[in-house]
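Contributing: when you submit paired examples, paste them exactly as shown. First protein:
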Amino acid sequence: FKWSQAIMLAAHCLRIPVIAETTALEGDSLLVVRGSRLGWLSYKCVTGARMIVNISPALGDAAFATGLPAERQAVIPNDVDTAFFTAPASNVAKADLKSKLGLDGSWLYVICVAGWWPNKGIDRVLDAFSAVAGDHGKVGLILCGPKNETATEPYSGRANYAAYIHETIIERDLAERVICTGYTEDIDLWMRASDIFVHAAAVEGFGNVIIEAMSTELPVAVLSIPGITDWIVSDAADGFVEPTVEGLGDRVRTLCDEKLRKAIGSSGRQTVLQRFGTELVMKQYVDLYRNCL
């Protein structure tokens, strides 16, 4: 039972209309809420809302599975600032940015933006990249995100996931190819300097970094999460969606072709402008609020 749910309960008592939002399959989806400690109370607080906004169809499916009717739900995605996440103005500008970040201008760089938690799949990214590195001499990997020094690796019982990632990089002789930025507020710069975006999380609520990469005109290759990544990305149209890590590696290898990278990156930008731009998403919320008054 959380403070947000307590606030909703107070609003219900005062007869103030409530619109609730679900954002994470393993966090606040209605299936998780109902199964939590004091779940019956939490579930009653959330489902007492006039409308439930799910940021992806997968979260909508979870809500529907608890018995919440479709007419009391809406799917409204997260948004991206398309003026902030943009591609470099020219190849020269990109080369200059690579130089400023200490990157080799003659290399291609694959970027993964994620914290070092097991569910974010940094190990799966390394698996996919390892296959590509064996075929291409000038391809690097940028792991952009904070390292969780306490997270465990659940599949093998390792006590420290970050240590496991570092060990894997060394064991596979990738130390000269992998750049670990740690926590950074310059994600937009690292994306602009990169050439391919890869995402291998096992579970998400949405995947903001995917639409940020698409907005930056990075071609994306993502692991399939039904109702989430395959809803954001249309396979082979504005990115690639793969069900396996092996397939993910194949797609990254395919995107080493410059012509294909540019075509997919441009299509991804158009998808974001048509579906995920801030003004478009905010309009959906405004319309929802008006309908609930």
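Second protein:
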Amino acid sequence: INNAEVVLDGGTINNGGGFRIASNLGASASKMILTNGAVMTQTLSNATIRVGDSAGLTGELIIDNSTLIHSGGEIGIGFTLNAIGVVKQFGGVVSNVTVNVSRGNSVTANYEMVGGVLAPLVIREQTASGTSYISFDGSTLMPASATTSNAVFFTGLNTAEIKSGGLTVDTAGLDLTIAQVLSGAGRLTKVSTGTLTLNGGSTYAGVTVSAGQVTLGNVANTFPEGVILNGGTLRITANADVLGTNSLALNGGTFGPNTGTRTVTVPVTIGGNVTMSTGTLIFTNSTFTLTGNRT
């Protein structure tokens, strides 16, 4: 698509090859919009959707309450040297695709979500010389059906922001790692079975565990609004700073290191039936509010 804004307003399009937005030198900024329940399917497994494919030009892909399904290829945002690529998702679903944010050298690449579900194979920055950004605001992130357990699912971007609407991570029964540093005013909420390991060293508002397991890896976090365990399991694999600097609320589920000795320094509220796992916990300079039971 060059020198144009193309809108798919409802209906379906099946594409059996690559797809390029703003790809010719001398072209103007170009845009593809899926809206009103439109469905776009990329049927070729190794095909690439190139968003921003020419130096100095902006290519934009907008998914507005619509669906984009890939057969296992990629979305390359900022595909070519000095290109500008923007993906905006308002509701809807994008699935079964590798999301390469900053695909080419010295690009500017953004993926912005408000609501919606993103179910990729992986999210990554492919080329470090570019600028890569992704944001979530009331959005859900989950693995594609072809994603494998024990995968590094999300890593490498310059900025990954959880806005005030928050981010829900549904591991769908898999064990996944987010090595990405996360920031922002919103919380991350873990749902469904499977284990989510957070290894990024983050400054977003906090973590809520509702089901499955969250493992806080060996990195320092801030979590200004604290960590909340409502169900499932919360594991800590390092000492005090993995829990942030604010508070720990234990309302249900299982908490502890599983093995070894860990230190907790934040204020702790026990508001439900909580099981402490094996291993040793040392509470240093912590205050306790007990409103439930501990076993």
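If you have annotations for the second protein, write them as plain sentences, like these:
The chain has a mean pLDDT of 91.
The CA atoms of residues 92 and 291 lie 41 Å apart.
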